[in-house]
Design goal:
Keywords: Oxidoreductase, Peroxidase. It comes from Rivihabitans pingtungensis. Helices cover 41% and strands 12% of the residues. The chain is α/β, with parallel strands linked by helices and 269 residues long. The mean pLDDT is 92.
Amino acid sequence: MVPGLECQSHAAHGAPLDAPPLLFVHGAYCAAWVWEEYFLPWFAQRGWHATAISLEGHGDSRGHAWLAALGIDDFARNVHAVVKTMPRPPVLIGHSMGGFVVQRYLEMHRQHPPAGVALMASVPPFGINASAWRMLTTAPDLLAALNLFQANEHYHPDLDQAQRLLFSADVDRERLRDWVRRFQPESMRAIFDLSMISLFPVSHLPAVPALVLGAANDQLIAPHEVVATACRLGVTAEILPDMAHLMMLDTHWEEAAKRLEGWLRATWG
């Protein structure tokens, strides 16, 4: 769709819905593949045209050589480049860091907003510092493993660490092993952006249809942080039970997909 940016798309099966297309934006340390595993085919089978972008420096997109210099605004521009190729404004669906990228996209494109947004376990408006401090006190070994992975591309957290940080206890171990191998270091500039945003006032966002979901067992984004994100968008946060941070891959991923599709159909169906 856009030269140099990987996009994985699934056309709607059967009679497509008269509704906006969906554009999924991944979080830190991964790429479009996290949506390809379950969500893209699941939504396509239900009549939605579903696309996932790999942000610059991620997956098979350009930019790995300069990943460290890429910031949140660069990622929001990546999203905009894909949006411009779509036949109508999409619903932007962002997870974790991708949720903050979507928030920044709304700030940067107030005059031409997307059809709507859905944020899943999103980084809150005040960034990641509270999450880092919480992990320092409750799970310092996991924070150390995350920092070591960021500093050394040849190091990967072991399966138990990855499961405790990102997944439910009953996640499929074989799938987990494959997913951990696909994780990649994140942009230092993006992490800096997410750390420094707390120093600036939170701006209002344009009014668009919005859904904000959190995960009850999330080790990274606490429920009160999900509430803060929802307040910024003028909606009520929803915390899904029996769910960990990587909601689109976790054991009960279909519950998150069903809630998202229920909202989509209620808004555009």
